[in-house]
Structure formats: structure tokens, C-alpha cells
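Loading example: each entry is read as two labelled lines plus one structure line.
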Amino acid sequence: MTDYNELLRNGVVKRRLLRKSTNVFMLGLTGALTLLALVPLFWIIGYVVYRGGSNINIALFTQMPRPMGVAGGGVLHAIEGSIIVTILATTFAVVPGVLAAFYASRNPNTPLGVALRFSTDVLSGVPSIIVGLFGYALIVKPEKHYSALAGGVALAVIMLPTIIRTTEEMLKLVPSNLREGSLALGAPEWKTSVSVLLPAALNGVITGVLLSVARAAGETAPLLFTTLGNDRFDVGAIVSSGITNHQSIFAIIGRIFNSPIDSLPLTLWKYAQQPYPERVNQAWAVAFVLLVLVLATNIIARVWIELRKRKLRG
Amino acid sequence: MEMNIAIKENDNLKMDGDIRIKVKAHHLSVYYGKFRALTDINMEIQERKITAIIGPSGCGKSTLLRSFNRMNDLTPSARIEGEIELDEEDIYGNNVDVVDVRRRIGMVFQRPNPFPKSIYDNVAYGPRLYGIHQRGVLDGIVESSIKQAALWDEVKDKLHQSGMSLSGGQQQRLCIARALAVQPEVILMDEPASALDPISTLRIEELMHDLAKNYTIIIVTHNMQQAARVSDFTAMMMIDETRSGRMIEYNSTNIIFTRPEDKRTEDYVTGRFG
């Protein structure tokens, strides 16, 4: 017995070096590969910050573009446009998306539920340029002009799968006895969904919406066919002309929605291919702004969730 | 209630007033699709008593309990035969409102399921469903419900904190308070203490004793000692050869646990199987 014990102890000592060196080697390997995987991420961010950051100035956010080849000016029109199109898209996508997710999670095995799930998967795989064509065929062609509205619809289609999927996943995580608890008090199904299930899943729903907003805000292809973009366009012009002509707020908003509009990704795409170095530099600056916006949206989503979680824990 | 005209032929039945049948199952069978989960259940449940339903897993205890407030309606394939009467009125009748049934027959679940809302809003959820919104009235209901659930001293200073922040046992008492807030007549409890530690379990059992002064309680439990400790009557269920649940014996708890008529009941309550 002692012999065996001795052998074991010797074995432990002998193998200690091998064990430790293997450990160090494998740890180093996984660490190095992790760094390698992070390289493209930080490379992209770093290069955009380097090229774009040096071209950031106040004028970029406050001024309209100057004529081609003239230095200075900004992309105020694109910032306005991006905000408006994204708000439109969110408005169109959130309600149907969340309702569809409720339906799918309650009736997963009905024909409509299966069809919904399947088409959501397909939709998320559709190339975004085709979604742009869809917006073109649905709104631009019949209306005979490009518009913010068409862009909003196209981006909403981009956002839908993410919203439906995340909401559905979150609803699945809500314990079924929460639903039963509400129904057992005599609450109708809709009331249970609105007052119990939705609040319980709200964190996830909001993350889903924010993530889809971040994705939609960076999309270019769907907007090519729908909003067109317009260097001279200025929401301010419509608003001021509307006010001087005593138009109602609805008429002004209607005109904004009905006009072509620019957006940050579209501007980036156009500026990057122009021969004027100042335009290319502005494209870098726009890339920087887009990157910051998307990162900020993601960070806000995550912080918000964390705060809500803490509040729920009490 | 003071008239002592109880039938004294069986003193084990601990009668202290006139016997009144609150809930009655009459030739009740429950089907899930083609499968008959419960077969021919007949039982009369006395008002303001605690009735326990015991039996091995899968014998249909929960199915039976969920038939009493029509929670089985939520399972699309479920269907019942026979009747369940509440105060001699068939709760599955054509002109019966399921919402009214569920208000009069409350339910407490196996796992505490407070809503992701404040303690106050959890308890006020039921009253608000029935259109009670005046702050003063709600405050009164919330306080008296939480007091009845023996939780008031622990939560009175934090009514606006999340119900999820409470301990498991407190959460379960919050769920009981939530059920009490709509003034039910019957409370169904589906293994209400199985997810709780022994101290919390004891508190729930003490609470059940207090509640039985005003409410009719039906409890499903796996825990034989619990059934023996808290209940006045015990129903023993088992599955038959077709895997359908049947009630094999129903009597006062005292008799079920000391001299049951059925051999299987005796084997079960003495721990020889199950």
C-alpha cells in the first residue's frame, strides 16, 4: 500500500513539469488565437477612427454639402435623413414584429405559426438589395418618385426578422406558470399578454429592437432603390417653407416622408467613389459617425438591460 | 354556524358546524385527445375544510385540480365529461363565464410565480382586472390580502419593490395574497410548498390552517406528512391498467392515514410504494 502510494507521489512529481508546461502552452495558444480573432475587429475600428476621426469637425454635423470640389461643408442632410428613415422603419416594424412574435410563440404548431417562422428565417437571409427592389416595386414605382417612406418600408423589412426572432425567444423564456397565474385570476389572454408577458419579456424585446435599429441604420442597399438620396435636400427647407405657407404639421411631415431623402450609409457610399479627396475624407468621417452610432446603440441597449435587471432584482 | 347539528356518526370527520358541500365532481372524466387522463371521479368537497389529493406521480392529481377552475380549457386537446359543480351549479355549463369561475376559485401554483411587477401591483392585479382602480380601495384590498397571507410585516415597508426580490417562501405567500385579493371562495393549491425549504413550508401550512376558517382549500401534494398535517379530508388517486387516473379512496384524513379501506392506499401512505 505504501509502495503504491510512493509510486503515485513520484508520478505526480515527475509529471508536474509536463503538466505545467502543457498548461502554459495551451493557455498561450488559446490567448493568441483569441487576439487573432479580435484583430480584424480592432483593425476596422482603429482604421476608421484614424481616417475618420481626423476629418471630424463641427461643420460635418451642422452644414450642408458644398458643391463638388469645394472644401468644407457637412452632411447634416444625411444625419437628418438617417434619423427620419430609421424612425419610420422602427414605427413600421415594431408593432407587427412584436405581435407576430406573440402569435408565433402562442401558436407554434398552427399552419400560420409554422409559415411565420419559416418566412422569418427566409426573410433574414434575403439579400438587402432585393429588399430595396421590393420597396421600389411596392412604393417607388406606383408613386412614380423616390421617398423617405419607401426607404422606411424597406428598412422595416430588414428589421422584422430580428424583432420577431428576439421577441419570440424572449417570450419563450417567460415561465409558462406566469401566464397561467394571470389566467387563473380570470384575466383574458390579451390582458395577460400585455400586462404580464410583455413586461416580463420587455428587456429582450427592447434589445431586439435596438439591435435591429443598429443594423438598419447601417444598411445601404435597401435605400439605393427607395430614398435615392439628394445632396440639396434639406428637411429644414420643407419645414420653413411649410411654416411660411401656414401648412399644418401633418402636411409638413407628409411632405418630408414623401420626398427623396439622404442617409449616412448612402452618403458614405456616394462620397467614397468620388475623385475629390475632400469628399473621400468626408466619407471616412461619415464612416466614423456611423460606427459610433451603431456602437452607442448597442452599448445603450446593454446598459439599459443591466439597469432593468437590477431594478427587477430589487 | 353555531348550530351544532353535525351528523356525529363518524367523529373522525371533525365536524364543527353544518356540513355544506362547496365543490362536487360528478362522474368526471378528462380526456387529452383520445387519452382518458381521468376516469369517473366522484367527490364532494366540504366548505371551509382542507381537502388533500394524494397519489403517485402521473395519476392525474393536477389534472383533477385544474379541472376545478377550468385551467384545462387552456390545453387545446383537453375535454371533459361529467360535471363539476360549485354551489350546485355546473361550472362547465353553457351560460357560465369562465372568468367568474376563476375569480371564485383561485389557484396557487407549484413554483411561486409573482409577476414582474411591484409587490403592490402583484396583489392589485386581480382587483384591477375587475375594474377596481380607486387608490384608497386598492390600498385596503392590498393590505388586507397581504395580511391574510401572513406577509404584511415582512413587506409593508417595500410594497413598491419588485415581487421577484422576495425569497421563495415570501413569493409563494405573495401569490397567495394575490389569489385572495379577488375574494375567491375556493383556493386550489398545486403542491404549493414543493419548491420551498422546510421553514417556509411550515409557514405555508400554518397559513393554510388560518385560511381554512374562511376558504375552502383543495391541495395536491406529494408529501404524505403534509397531507396528514394540514388536511381534513384526503382523496387517494391511482392510475388503472389503461393509465387513466381514478380515485380509489376518499375519506377523512384520519381514516385514510390510520385505517384505509383499500390495500393500495395503505401501501402508499405507509411508504411501501410510490
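The first strand of chain B starts at residue 21 and ends at 32.
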